[in-house]
Amino acid sequence: MQRLSAIAEQLLAQSRAAGASQAEVSCNEDSGLSVNVRMGEVETVEATRDRGIAVTVYFGTRKGSASTADLRDDSLQATVAQACAIARHTEDDPASGLADAELMAKTQREFDSWHPAAFDADRAIGIALAAEAAGREVDARIGNSDGASANAGATISVYANSHGFLGAERSTSYSIGCALIAGEGEDMQRDSWYSVALAEGDLDAPELVGRKAAQRTLERLDPRSLPTGEVPVLFAAEMARSLIGHYLSAVSGGALYRKASFLLDSVGTRVFPDWFDIDELPFLPRGFRSAAFDAEGVATRESPLVRDGIVQRYVLGSYSARKLGLQTTANAGGVHNLQVRANAGGLPELVQRMGRGLLVTELMGQGVNAITGDYSRGAAGFWIEGGRIAHPVDGITIAGNLKTMFGSIEAVGGDIDPRSHVRMGSMLLGRMTVAGTG
């Protein structure tokens, strides 16, 4: 951190000397180890170590950026010179420039995200092999594997700008994954499971990951299609997150100032049911996106995105905020930890509450129109009858309009999937079109 901080300050000084009215520097250094095994044999072992230095300068409202991975003084000087040359040849953009100085974070904070551990290749291989072996041993019908993996990574980053702000962050990450194949010929089915955490000790045991992958794979055997019709649809927690992702895209500054969103001018309007809340919580210990400042140095803060179903604010960095005549929401670089309010129990309770309908556990394709909100994606999961799982389903498409879908949410479960910065449970929608061949 000290080395990267010194480089950042050096580059800012060189930018000022070159005549830039404002400047900002981002420095990152990443290291990682990734292992993949399949059918008890090691397929790949990859160690990585990368760094990147990015310089952005402003000459009034003209902007130029350049980057390098070379830390030699002559290379750093050349990077500043290139950024300045680009800025001098660009058009004026009134929205460009650093975020306002008074919005910079005043304090640095740690969020218990730094947990380096001895994670060498032999140990990683052993973890991946253990996950795959545990899964393959569950049932004789699991005759093949799509592989298992074990990964570890560490990131150190520094951001500094000519307002005098300098902030440093660091984090580690670990993951175990396993994908298995059951059945034979055209009746084969594949499914997977994974565990991810900032501290290795928070990971699920590799054997648990393998057995969960096996259970999910076996449950998918002998699937059927469905007749086309309108039915309630229950999204499992890991699938429900994607719907929140579509919402975030629609209220992000870039989509709004380009008028490429179905939620234009939506602040103050009701989009979700009156009990529905989404809160941004950037200060969670061991949160995947915890941060004291955003990618522009702006101080983060806890705040609602949606309260009682009503849109409270957009997701903005300083550039998009200026384009819209608003102020940044400290979301340059994306949102931080989100919490979606639950109003129901876990998945079994929601299955029983739905009674009859579709439980979605996998989504395929990218059939979402950001401008109209039209939604159409391939799906797989389970048919629910009498409040219980009747049989697996695949070869279907689910369709609707996101604005209508958001308004028809009936429940969010308390079965929070902890593997993401979007913390939420399963989500039950009152009705969607399901198209199949049954």
TrEMBL record:
Residues 23-87 form the Metalloprotease TldD/E N-terminal domain. Belongs to the peptidase U62 family. This is Metalloprotease PmbA. One of its GO terms (molecular function) is metallopeptidase activity. Keywords: Hydrolase, Metalloprotease, Protease. SUPFAM superfamilies: Putative modulator of DNA gyrase, PmbA/TldD (SSF111283). It comes from the Bacteria. InterPro entries: Metalloprtase-TldD/E_C, Metalloprtase-TldD/E_cen_dom, Metalloprtase-TldD/E_N, PmbA, TldD/PmbA_N, TldD/PmbA_sf. One of its GO terms (biological process) is proteolysis. PANTHER family: METALLOPROTEASE PMBA (PTHR43421:SF1). The gene is pmbA. Residues 115-221 form the Metalloprotease TldD/E central domain. GO terms for cellular component: cytosol. Residues 228-436 form the Metalloprotease TldD/E C-terminal domain.
